[in-house]
Amino acid sequence: MLDKLDATQLRNLLTACPIGMMMLDAQGTVTWVNPILLSTLDLDEGSVLGKSESTVDPLLRTLFQNEAIFHSADESVVLAVSSQKIDSGRMQYIMDISTLRRLVRERDDLRQKVRDLTLSDDITGMMNKRGLLHALEPQVARSRRYGNLLSVLLIRVDNYQDL
Q1: Entry pTM
Q2: Closest CA to 77 of 42, 34, 30, 32
Q3: Alpha carbons 50 and 25: distance in angstroms, whole number
């Protein structure tokens, strides 16, 4: 079906693509950009069209690399850049991964919170220090309340994998 598209239909498809795209000629000069790239970077066509890696704003030079991660000056936008060689030059694909990066950071933070709140060791299944203190607290309170003695035995096992 794609081989039956005329130039106008193909241009409309590329323009409507949900990821940023930038076409470079054989000399590395930008010949076309789609609107999504311009809106993502808050640029106008004049700031990139007809420019090459050496003539574009230094902050945008990452967009000309084959594989790269682009960070905006305020770190609010993170883009993944990939490249594909075409007959008359190169097509740059630029995908906004800001949300993905934020979600990965949130996931890592939540994993750390879970680790911090876990009461047992992942490997052995035995109580860790937090779990031990959590389990001992009511026993210590009961011992104090009734005036009973309380004994706690702590055993440390090193190199338990060798047992």
Answers
A1: 0.66
A2: 42
A3: 10
